[in-house]
Specification:
The chain is α/β, with parallel strands linked by helices and about 325 residues long. It contains eleven helices and twelve strands. Pfam families: Peripla_BP_4.
């Protein structure tokens, strides 16, 4: 071996030892390798679609709580406030801060796709949480199967809630968000077994309780003989209940939601207290996202699951108290 070859071998060996890790992560746009391994400090940027939603508040808490148990992890959360352009700017800002990993829960899929791809192409591991982006330019996706959840809700309507049929109002999530489209599709698949069930109206409530209430108020007036209201999340279902209560129809109309947060203001307690007939669990995935981040950044794992599908359960008055305790409610 000549002197040049020997010198090159020594340099390569020294560079690998300096990383403190057997896995070398992709380089960022400045050509600097992103190091991983135990005993290091890591900055994680979490781009949240909208902190005003109770579900997202719980998700943020789950992420922050889980991150506290991982030495060296620091999570900074940004709030897009349902503004796509702001969320794009939030991610761009994280990239200028040289974050080690990005967790993003997109407000809408298409507008966030390009900036998520930009982060991924720069070598930043990207965990897409809850809502999807278009394409394949991300490290991993964690979320529930919204089609399956919607179908479970539809089957509940077809066999249990409205076995004899009836008119249904749908209050959908934010247009352009993948859960809204998937929960709508799944619900229609589920009620198909009962042709006596008819969806007479469907309008977006943008995941917000107040808008859900105003939409339900207008639709109940237009369809006074409605039998039930299927809302894509619990806050909109609660809003619909308030609208029906104001119209003197809360006892006649049945309400269902999705999320089942184990908090005093969440859907499980609304079921237990009789305002909702049922809710369907939609786990936040916050703890799972931090655990995956730990594997990527601390364990230097390259082969991580591309997709993690979170489980669900149907919660009615019969199992509400048990579900609340099982899911860690306080």
């Amino acid at each position: 071996m000549d002197k040049r070859t020997t010198l090159l071998a020594l340099l390569v060996t020294g560079a690998l030892a300096a990383t403190g890790c057997s896995v070398e992560k992709p380089s960022d746009d400045a050509g600097q390798a992103r190091a991983c391994g135990a005993g290091k400090d890591f900055l994680i940027g979490m781009s949240q679609a909208n902190n005003a939603e109770p579900y997202r508040q719980v998700m943020n808490n789950d992420v922050q709580t889980a991150a506290k148990s991982v030495p060296g992890f620091r999570v900074v959360v940004s709030d897009a406030a349902q503004d796509n352009s702001k969320q794009v700017a939030d991610v761009e800002n994280f990239l200028t801060q040289k974050i080690d990993l990005l967790i993003v829960s997109p407000n809408e899929a298409k507008p966030l796709t390009a900036v998520v791809k930009k982060a991924y192409d720069q070598g930043v591991p990207v965990i897409v949480l809850d809502r999807k982006v278009e394409g394949e330019a991300y490290t991993a996706f964690i979320g529930g199967d919204n089609v399956a959840i919607g179908k479970a809700a539809g089957e509940f309507y077809a066999t249990t809630l409205l076995p004899g049929g009836g008119k249904v109002i749908e209050i959908a999530g934010l247009p352009g968000s993948t859960p809204a489209a998937e929960r709508a599709q799944g619900f229609r698949d589920g009620i198909a077994a009962n042709p006596k069930i008819q969806i007479v109206a469907s309008q977006p409530g943008d995941w917000l309780r107040e808008k859900g209430q105003s939409v339900a108020d207008a639709l109940i007036k237009t369809h006074p003989d409605v039998s039930a209201i299927y809302a894509h999340n619990d806050p909109m279902a609660e809003g619909a209940y308030l609208a029906a209560k104001s119209a003197g129809k809360a006892q006649r109309i049945k309400f269902t939601g999705i999320d089942a947060l184990p908090v005093p203001s969440g859907g499980i307690k609304a079921v237990e207290q009789g305002r909702l007939a049922a809710t369907f669990q939609y786990a936040t995935g916050g703890r799972e996202a931090v655990e995956l981040a730990r594997k990527i950044l601390v364990d230097c794992a390259e082969d991580v699951p591309r997709t993690t599908t979170l489980g669900t359960m149907r919660i009615t008055k019969e199992n509400a108290a048990e579900a609340y305790a099982k899911l860690g409610g306080l």
